[in-house]
Structure formats: structure tokens, C-alpha cells
């Protein structure tokens, strides 16, 4: 099959786009904090101190969040900021436990997930005094057994 010169040029351009497009993406993931644009730094500010130590897959996730942030509702943006702040204050041990619990929760059947979500909503609606009372009565009120 004989290809025209324009088809060859187009194939070459597509090949270069694929090759260098992947390379540019990898550079974005490995970008240092100082290289982030102002909007990205504003969204990811809670992670500023540790950004340069994050793994590439973690940076990728955070850059995805920063990219989607402007399209989020204000309540979703507030939730993102709260979660990033909470995450930045956690120790590595607490983060690992959070990851494990999240994975365990995700592996549960839908009915069990629904039940746990309902219990969590009920708990959140309690007054601070009622929560403190429950906590003092049962300091280990959330165990791995709850996820099984």
C-alpha cells in the first residue's frame, strides 16, 4: 500500500503527539511545588509542605482534583479543602490506616455500605455531649470487625 506524503506527515505528527504527549504528562506529575500555577497552589495549599515528597500517583490525583476544582459546587470545594487539610495533618500511620479502611469499605456489599452510611449520618446528628458520652462508653467504637 502506497501512502501519500500528507498521510505520512499526519502519521508522524500523531506518533510525535503520542510520544511527547505521554512525556509531558509524566513531567506534570513530577512537577515541583514551585512549578505549579497559582490556581493549583491555591487549591492544593494544605499539601504545600509535603508536595515535593508525594509519590507520582499521589501528585497525579491531586493535580486531577486541582483541574476539576473550578467546576465543583461551593459545597464540594469546601469538602475538598476540608479533606485536604485533614489529610495533611495525619501521620503516615494514620494515612495508611485510612487507606486500609477505605479499601475495606469499598469491598463491602452495597447493603452493608448503606447501613454504615446511615449509622454515620445518625452519629453526626448527635450533639457533642452525646458523642462524647458514646466515645467514653466505647472508646473503640469503630473496629475492623465493623467492616466484615
Describe this structure in words.
The protein is mainly α. The chain has one domain. Helix content is 68%, strand content 0%. It contains seven helices and no strands. The protein has helices at residues 5-29, 38-43, 56-68, 74-89, 92-106, 110-124, 128-137. The longest helix is centred in the first third of the chain and has 25 residues, at 5-29. It starts with a helix and ends in an 11-residue tail after the last helix. Mean pLDDT is 78; it is low at 1-27.
Key words describing this protein structure:
148 residues, mainly alpha, elongated, disordered N terminus
Overall mean pLDDT stands at 78
| Radius of gyration based on Cα positions | 23 Å
- Low-confidence parts, pLDDT < 50 over ≥5 residues? 1-27
Total number of strands: 0
The fraction of residues in strands falls at under 5%
Based on Cα principal axes, name the global outline. Answer: elongated
Q: What is the helix fraction of residues, given as a range?
A: 55-70%
Summarize the model shown.
With 148 residues, the protein is an all-alpha fold.
Q: How are the SSEs ordered, and which strands pair?
A:
Layout: H1 5-29, H2 38-43, H3 56-68, H4 74-89, H5 92-106, H6 110-124, H7 128-137
Amino acid at each position: 500500500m502506497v501512502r501519500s506524503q500528507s498521510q505520512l506527515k499526519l502519521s508522524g505528527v500523531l506518533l510525535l503527539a503520542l510520544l511527547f504527549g505521554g512525556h509531558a504528562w509524566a513531567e506534570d506529575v513530577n512537577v515541583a511545588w514551585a512549578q505549579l500555577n497559582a490556581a493549583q497552589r491555591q487549591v492544593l495549599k494544605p499539601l504545600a509542605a509535603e508536595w515535593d515528597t508525594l509519590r507520582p500517583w499521589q501528585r497525579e490525583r491531586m493535580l486531577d482534583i486541582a483541574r476539576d476544582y473550578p467546576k465543583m459546587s461551593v459545597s464540594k470545594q469546601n469538602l475538598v479543602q476540608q479533606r485536604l487539610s485533614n489529610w495533611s495533618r495525619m501521620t503516615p500511620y494514620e494515612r495508611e490506616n485510612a487507606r486500609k479502611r477505605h479499601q475495606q469499605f469499598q469491598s463491602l456489599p452495597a447493603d452493608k455500605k448503606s447501613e454504615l452510611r446511615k449509622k454515620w449520618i445518625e452519629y453526626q446528628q448527635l450533639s457533642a455531649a452525646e458523642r462524647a458520652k458514646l466515645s467514653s462508653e466505647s472508646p473503640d467504637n469503630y473496629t475492623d470487625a465493623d467492616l466484615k
